[in-house]
Amino acid sequence: MHQAQRGQITEHITDRITGHVSEQVSERGALHTDAPLTKRYACRYAALVSMSSSSLSASGSASRNSLAEVASSEASLRRFLHGLPGIDAVGLQARAAGLGTRSIKTSAKAYAIDLAISMIDLTTLEGADTPGKVRSLCQKAQSPDPGNPDVPHTAAVCVYPDMVPFAKEALGSAPINVAAVATAFPSGRAGLPVKLADTAEAVAAGADEIDMVIDRGAFLSGRYLEVFETITEIKKACERPDGTSAHLKVIFETGELVTYDNIRRASWLAMLAGAHFIKTSTGKVAVNATPANTLVLMEAVRDFRDATGVQVGVKPAGGIRTTKDAMKYLVMVNEILGDDWLSPDWFRFGASSLLNDLLMQRQKLSTGRYSGPDYVTVD
Q1: Structure confidence at residue 368 (pLDDT)
Q2: For the sheet containing 277-279, what is the strand order?
Q3: Is the pLDDT of residue 268 over 50?
Q4: Where are the beta strands (DSSP E) in 214-311?
Q5: 107 domain-assigned
Q6: Which pairs from 15-18 meet CB under 8 Å and 24+ separation?
Q7: One-letter-per-residue 3-state SS of 61-76
Q8: Annotated catalytic residue 39
Q9: What is the structure's pLDDT at 40?
C-alpha cells in the first residue's frame, strides 16, 4: 500500500471514530484521567532503562550496554519486571470491549480493508506443507485477488524453516518478506543449541523475519534471565555475514501465560532483549489473540517507546478470521498507539483465513453484493 493510502486510512479512522477517550493507566492498570501516562511511566522506568538519544543507532535499536543494569542478574531483572504496574483485568477487558464497539463506515472501511490486507502475514504451518502449497500461498500473497490488481499484497509469507527456499524462489523480487518460525515452534521446548541451529538454518536460507517462541515453562518458573538471554542469543543468530539481520518477532503464547501481568512482564522482557516485534500467539493453542491480551502488548510497546525512544511492533495471531475482527484491532491501534503504528512495518495480523473474508468484504463494497467463498482462492 502506498504511503498516501496509509495516510488516508489514518485520517479516515481518526475522523470517523467518535467518543475517543485518552487512555490513562493507574498504578493498577485501570482507566485513569489525571497525570499524563507518558510522564508517569517515563519517571518510573528512567532509572532502570536509561537511554539517551546518543545510545540509539540509526536503525532505532537500543544499545545493550544501556540495559545492562536491568538484565545484569536474575534478581535485578525480576525486581524490574515485578515492579511494573499491575493490571486491573476488569478494567482492561472493559476498555478492549469498548474499543470493539466502534464502527468504520463507507470509504473509511474501504481504506481499512486494504490496510488490513497489507498487514497480513499469510501463513501455512502444517506438517503436511509441501513446496507446491508454499508456492501457491506466495502467489496469493502477491495477488490476493488475481482479477483486481488494485488489491495490495500482503506483508509477508510465514512458513517453517525448510520451506523458506521455496518461498524465496516463488516471491522473487516481490516486496514481500519471508518469515520463518523457529526455536522449536510451537512449544519452545528445546536446548539453546537446537534453537540457534533452527534460526541459523532459516536465516541462511534467506528468511527476512524470524518468529521465535519463548519457553513458557522457563518464564512461568521465574527463570526470566534464561528467557532474556535466549532471546538475545537468537537475535545474534539472526545476523548475516553482510551485516544485515533478519527481524526478530518474539511469540509469548499469551493463552498459556495465565495472567495479564505475566503478559506485560513478557512484553517488557522481550523488548529489553531486543525484539523488533512482540506477538501474542502461535495459533496452535486454544486461546490465541484476543482484544484484551493484544491491548496489553499495545500498552507495553507504547510505554516502552515513551521510556526509551525505541519503537517495537505488535502482531496478534490466531483466531482473527473476519473483517469485523480486523477492524476492531485497527481501531485499537489508532486509539492506543496512533499513526506511527498504522503500517505493516509496525503492526501485523498473523492470519490466513482473514484474507478471504477481507477480499469478500472488499468486493461487497465495490459491487454491492457478496460473491461468497467461491470467489476467493483456497489456501
Answers
A1: 73
A2: 313-315, 277-279, 247-251, 209-213, 177-182, 156-159, 120-123, 349-350
A3: yes
A4: 247-251, 277-279
A5: yes
A6: 15/108, 16/103, 16/104, 16/105, 16/108, 17/102, 17/104, 17/331, 17/334, 17/335, 18/102
A7: CECHHHHCCCCCCHHH
A8: no
A9: 41
Respond yes or no: is residue 105 known to be catalytic. no
Distance of CA 377 to the CA centre of its chain: 26
Catalytic residue among 109, 235, 249, 315: 315
Pick the more confident residue, 264 or 378: 264
Is position 374 within any domain?
no
Q: Give the span between the Cα atoms of 123 and 255, in whole angstroms.
A: 20
Q: Which amino acid is at 19?
A: G
| 356-375 confidence digits (pLDDT tens) | 999 999 998 877 776 666 56
Containing structural domain, residue 333: 3-23+37-369
Q: Is 284 a catalytic residue?
A: no
Q: Are strands 247-251 and 209-213 parallel, antiparallel or unpaired?
A: parallel
Is the pLDDT score of 352 beyond 90? Answer: no
For residue 65, pLDDT over 80 is answered with: no
Residue 105: CB atoms within 10 A of its CB come to: 10
User: Can you tell me the distance from the alpha carbon of 370 to that of 160, in angstroms, rounded to the nearest whole number?
Assistant: 34
Q: What is the pLDDT of residues 114-136, one digit of tens each?
A: 999 999 999 999 999 999 999 99
Query: Does the pLDDT value for residue 69 go beyond 90?
Result: no
357 vs 123, 159, 321, 370, CA distance in Å?
15, 21, 7, 11
pLDDT for position 375: 60
Q: What is the mean pLDDT of residues 72-93?
A: 94
Q: What is the pLDDT of residue 106?
A: 74
Which stretch of DSSP H or E encloses residue 363?
helix 353-367
Nearest to 226 by CA among 267, 192, 195, 187: 192
Could you tell me if 321 and 353 are in contact, meaning their C-beta atoms sit under 8 angstroms apart?
yes
CATH at 69? 3.20.20.70
10 located within any domain: yes
Integer-rounded Cα Rg, in Å, for the chain is 20
Q: Which of 195, 235, 279, 328 is catalytic?
A: 279
Residue 31 belongs to a domain: no
d(CA 84, CA 93): 19
- For the chain, the domain total comes to 1
Residue 308 has pLDDT above 70, yes or no: yes
Distance CA 270, CA 250 (A): 7
Q: Does the structure show a pLDDT above 60 at 25?
A: no
Q: Which of 88, 121, 198, 211 is catalytic?
A: 211
